Amino acid sequence: MSKKVIATTQAPKALGPYSQAIQSDNTLYISGQIGIDPETDTFVGHTTIEQTQQIFKNIDAILHTAEFSRADVVKTTLFFDDLNDFTSVNKLYEVYFGANAIDTLPARSAIQVAALPKQAKIAIEIIATK
């Protein structure tokens, strides 16, 4: 089994002792992303929607660096600080993954947590495979 660290300056640096992503053979594990702009190291906006939009940009940057695409994503986990934001985030999620491609949408879990790093509104982690 091979193991490769994936890192890009186009996504925020890890907030602790972990990697942005790890590729093991044909599988990519992207650590939970929060809505931080990698250039300013600050949150993009104060709403869950604004932060989710930035998270998807960060995920795209990591996928690209690892030579993966959205089509390779097989599992997502969404961590909310408030599940009342689920419906609005779901609309962005449909656009991001392509609601017309219902047969290729990744598996997903969505949970509410007590708190997220830096008081983020949402965090998303990804598993992709080729």
Automatic annotation (TrEMBL):
It comes from the Bacteria. Gene3D superfamilies: RutC-like. Pfam families: Ribonuc_L-PSP. GO terms for molecular function: deaminase activity. CDD domains: YjgF_YER057c_UK114_family. GO terms for cellular component: cytosol. PROSITE patterns: UPF0076. NCBIfam families: Rid family detoxifying hydrolase. Belongs to the RutC family. This is Endoribonuclease L-PSP, putative. It comes from Leuconostoc kimchii (strain IMSNU 11154 / KCTC 2386 / IH25).
